[in-house]
Amino acid sequence: MKVILIRHAEVDMKWPKTCNSSEYEEACQKYNEADIKPMQEKQPKADGYVILTSSEKRAKQTARMLFGDSTFHETDLLSEVPIAPFTDTDRKLPRWMFDVLGRLQWIVGSSRQPESRSETRERARKAAALIDRQDCDCVVISHGFFLRVLLREYSGRKGYTISRGTAFSIPPLSRIRITMTKDHCGNCAHNCLLENPGCDIGKMKAQNREAGDHNG
């Protein structure tokens, strides 16, 4: 099974550089309601894939722009981790301060945040279980912060190989591949997939597996 994680496209909205708590809350709401920017991305083939997407507008628009009229399934399990102002204030503060301190409150489980870290982790476990139940290749369109939590869920499981690390920032339209470790050739620098081996080790292992299948 192969899972392709995609962060939604860039949102067509300009965040304020400074704001008070009410203005920050309004900006977050505006972001959730905004459209994505037009994309020049080529539509990848979706044949054989189940497409799962967050129920939020920017994710669903990305799915439609990437995959056209293909059928996709939306779920709140893949929605972004919500964020609220870390305090109530009329004072203008840098916007990044609201972002950083709000996420710190999420880590420690502050009641000011709509969802705690433990609740997000539980949602990620349920999302991974939903993906696994598809029992086929999947495309998952979600959000930057939640995808990092979902990646940590998969990195803690045995039997999976992730195409990249959990970097602090996941840019819009980034693609991260998760595959079953048994589908990799192993023993090479690039750990290529057996379905498309990129080295002699991988080709030989794939050929041996195919011969074994035929002999069985």
Strand and helix layout:
Elements (H helix, E strand, L loop, with lengths): L1 E6 L10 E2 L1 H13 L16 E5 L2 H11 L4 E4 L17 E2 H14 L8 H18 L3 E5 L1 H12 L4 E3 L12 E6 L19 H16 L1
Parallel strand pairs: 1-6, 3-4, 3-6
Antiparallel strand pairs: 1-8, 2-5, 7-8
Helix pairs in contact: 4-5
What composes the largest sheet? Answer: 6 strands, mixed
CATH fold node name of the largest domain: Rossmann fold
Span between N and C termini? 22 Å
Helix content: 25-40%
Specify the CATH homologous superfamily of the largest domain.
Phosphoglycerate mutase-like
Order of helices and strands: EEHEHEEHHEHEEH
Which descriptor suits the 3D outline? elongated
Could you give the order of strands across the largest sheet?
4-3-6-1-8-7
State the helix count. 6
Structure in words:
The protein is built from six helices and eight strands, in the order E-E-H-E-H-E-E-H-H-E-H-E-E-H. It has about 220 residues and is α/β, with parallel strands linked by helices. Helix 4 (about 115-135) crosses helix 5 (about 145-155). The two termini are about 20 Å apart.
